[in-house]
Amino acid sequence: MRKTGPALIIFLLCLTAFWFFTSPTVCTGHETTMEVSDMKEARRLMVEQLIAYGITDQKVLAAMGKVPRHRFLPADYITSAAYGDHPLPIGHDQTISQPYIVAYMTERMHLAKGEKVLEIGTGSGYQAAVLAELGADVYSMEIVPELASHATDVLKTIGYACNVKCGDGYQGWPEHAPFSVIIVTCAPGELPEKLVEQLAEGGRMILPLGGAFSQRLVILRKKDGKIEQEEDLPVRFVPMIKK
Ligand code: SAH
């Protein structure tokens, strides 16, 4: 009977340790395991919605199902609301695009692994992460220094090797041109000529073109040095700032 005391204490200690290491509130770096599973579920529902809206590219769906969108948002928005199909503010009067638009623009570019991609409008860094998850060699430009620096930090922390530069997207990134794909996530009034020049032969570019209240996604393809232009969905993006 006397020996049951220590055995009981050891049993209780083991039970406490088991509870501590398996409890949903154990910290794993920035998030609790409870948050991680909530976000996973929110991401799964987001992907279901993308499928319902007509996204079919399995690689794009897998990438969107993997990239932790909530990690790219300002602290106030780090909840499962990050996965709702709407844009969200990221500060400096800018927004992170709604998941459907990110998936749609990415799907329309038919990316192959290793292709060099230029994104104009890094914003939160989320679209750049989705491109990197698909195996692209990503170059992304952002005009607001604070956003460029925040996106650089988040991408690095999560482990995406994207090249982010603070600068004017109208100039493109000539040192790394030509690009197989150019994705513009802010809306210029007219086609930025330097970006067209920096598109590789056989390359594709997608951008929202137009003024504040009336824009359309436009897809360009460079074939034998000539540009083919296709008009696509009506959209609403933040304007591309002219310096
Ligand atoms: N792709 C982003 C969302 C972009 S919002 C994401 O995944 O979060 C559009 C971004 O374009 C904003 O951050 C804005 O500051 C940036 N932008 C606007 N004009 C620009 C310009 N001339 N050059 C580079 N970036 C620009």
Bound molecules: S-adenosyl-L-homocysteine
Number of strands: 11
Q: Which blocks of ≥5 consecutive residues have pLDDT under 50?
A: 14-29
Strand line-up in the sheet with most strands: 7-6-5-8-9-10-11
CATH superfamily of the domain at 87-235: Vaccinia Virus protein VP39
Q: Characterize the main sheet.
A: 7 strands, mixed
CATH class bucket of the domain at 87-235: Alpha Beta
Query: Looking at CATH, which topology of the domain at 87-235 would you report?
Result: Rossmann fold
Give average pLDDT, whole number.
89
Q: What general outline do the C-alpha atoms trace?
A: globular
Number of discrete helical segments: 7
**N→C terminal distance:** 83 Å
In quaternary terms, these chains amount to: single chain
CATH architecture call of the domain at 87-235:
3-Layer(aba) Sandwich
Topology order in helix (H) and strand (E) letters: HEEHHEEHEHEHEEHEEE
- Structural class of the helices, strands and pairings? alpha/beta
Estimate percent helicity: 25-40%
Provide the β-strand percentage band: 25-35%
For the CA atoms, what is the radius of gyration? 22 Å
